[in-house]
Amino acid sequence: MAQGRVAKLVLIGAVPPIMVKSAANPGGTPIEVFDGFRSALAANRSQFYLDVASGPFYGYNRPGVPALVMHGDDDQVVPIADSALLSAKLLRNATLKVYKGLPHGMCATHADAINADLLAFVKS
Question: Are 65 and 93 in contact (CB under 8 A)?
Answer without folding.
Answer: yes
